[in-house]
Automatic annotation (TrEMBL):
Pfam families, per database record: PTS_IIB
Species this protein is from: Melghirimyces algeriensis
Gene3D superfamilies: 3.40.50.2300
Record-given protein name: PTS system IIB component, Gat family
Keywords on record: Transferase
Gene Ontology MF terms: protein-N(PI)-phosphohistidine-sugar phosphotransferase activity
GO biological process, one term: phosphoenolpyruvate-dependent sugar phosphotransferase system
Lineage: superkingdom: Bacteria
Phosphotransferase system EIIB component type 2/3 domain: residues covered: 3-54
Coiled coil: none
Amino acid sequence: MINILAACGAGVNSSHQIKTALEEEMKKRGYSVKVDAVVIKDINKAMMEQYDIFAPISKPKLGFDVQIPIVEAGPILYRIPAMADPVFDELEGIIKKLNK
């Protein structure tokens, strides 16, 4: 199981849309992922250590170095395959490298 942290400014809408899209697409591609959606301001280093991949709407400055792969997932929100597919492909590439 790959654990992914999705985040947006409010933690209400965009991060939940990203969560759903990542879970559905990665399932179609044959991967088992669990995605949690949070508010960016609530993220701390200890929280981040519980995840394999960070998928924010855009790359934030958190005040600490993120030690896991970051995939900017904002383009998924446009629901246009030409924009979303590269995000899914990047995520799949990282999942393959993690070999979990």
